[in-house]
Write a structure and sequence with these properties.
The chain is of the alpha/beta class. The protein contains 8 helices and 16 strands. It has a 6-stranded parallel sheet, with helices on both faces. A 6-stranded parallel sheet has the order 10-9-13-14-15-16, with helices on both faces. Helix 5 links the parallel strand 9 and strand 10. Helix 1 packs across helix 8. The longest helix is centred in the N-terminal third of the chain and has 15 residues. The structure holds ribose-5-phosphate. Ribose-5-phosphate binds next to strand 13 and helix 6.
Length: 291
């Protein structure tokens, strides 16, 4: 497969190091400083080798800053090789994959063009919000799933008659896959999001989940609104303990506190975004996708 270099972006340092180790690749740290006006200045601490260069950076908040840093690193890497793979463990803007209201811009299509123009030959993402987003890429775009890793984590927890729950019908394929690997059943709630205010409501009717321990499976938690509404609804139906498994825990502001207050026992996420809940490592699934 030849020489591989791994450029570690600001948001994904630990993960990039693990991936480099698994691939026996040259690890290239970066140093990022910010000017008083917010501009980033990035320095590669080693020269990449010709061959495959992975540029690893989640575009988590601050999304636009981290995206521009990613584009800058890709553009710099392109000077050394034509085989630039952008590894974007959490892909911001993936939820903007269609116009919901008239006049809305599908910004993921702009992100796709920018990544291509900067010099990426391929992108690799983990559990992207929906596969629709990948259709905007003219370069190869691969989605890897963290579900097996999350399932392994939950297999170590003692649960009573577990049931997997998707907070909305859009995520039911994800919950179904989780349930299959966990060897249990699943349900999907019906969620309505007001496209103007962003507020969510659960529209499901009563269900029989009495005393069953639940795992709410979602791709991401941002404000926590979806998980909070789902938890409040499920608690009212008499559920047992509620856990959350998600790939990307952004957890804006007091989201974590509010989710716990609603009745969630534990949130488990992956290290696509660092934080207290990031207990599942996705370095080997990403490394395997390169081999
Ligand atoms: C929505 O369809 C997504 O899968 C997530 O459920 C949602 O984006 C999470 O956002 P929030 O935590 O703000 O409700």
């Amino acid at each position: 497969m030849g020489k591989i270099s791994v450029i570690s972006g600001n948001t994904s340092k630990g993960l990039a190091r693990r991936i480099a180790k698994k691939l026996n690749a040259t690890f290239i740290p970066t140093e990022t400083t910010n000017f008083p006006d917010g501009e980033s200045k990035i320095t590669l601490k080693k020269i990449p080798k010709k061959g495959i260069i992975l540029v690893i950076q989640s575009t988590s908040p601050p999304v636009d800053t981290n995206l521009l840093q990613l584009l800058s690193m890709i553009s710099q890497a392109r000077k050394f090789s034509s085989k630039i793979y952008a590894v974007i463990p959490y892909m911001g803007y993936a939820r903007q994959d269609r116009s919901f209201l008239g006049g809305e811009i599908v910004t993921i299509s702009v992100v796709a063009k920018m990544l291509e123009t900067a010099g990426a030959k391929k992108i690799i993402v983990v559990d992207i919000h929906s596969k629709t987003a990948l259709k905007y890429f003219k370069i190869e775009a691969e989605n890897v799933s963290a579900i097996p890793k999350l399932v392994n984590y939950f297999k170590k927890i003692k649960l009573k008659n577990p049931l997997i729950v998707s907070p909305d019908t859009g995520g039911s394929a994800r919950a179904k896959e989780f349930a299959k690997q966990f060897n249990t059943d699943f349900i999907s709630l019906k969620k309505h999001r007001n496209r103007k205010t962003g507020k969510v409501k659960i529209q499901s009717s009563k269900m029989n989940i009495k005393n069953r321990d639940l795992i709410l499976v979602d791709d991401m938690i941002s404000s926590g609104g979806s998980i909070i509404k789902a938890t409040q609804f499920l608690k009212k139906q008499g559920s047992g303990k509620i856990f959350v498994a998600c790939s990307h825990a952004i957890l804006i502001g007091d989201a974590e506190k509010n989710i716990r207050k609603a009745g969630v026992k534990e949130i488990i996420s992956t290290n696509t975004i660092l934080g207290r809940t990031a207990k599942v490592d996705v370095s080997d699934i990403i490394a395997k996708s390169i081999k």
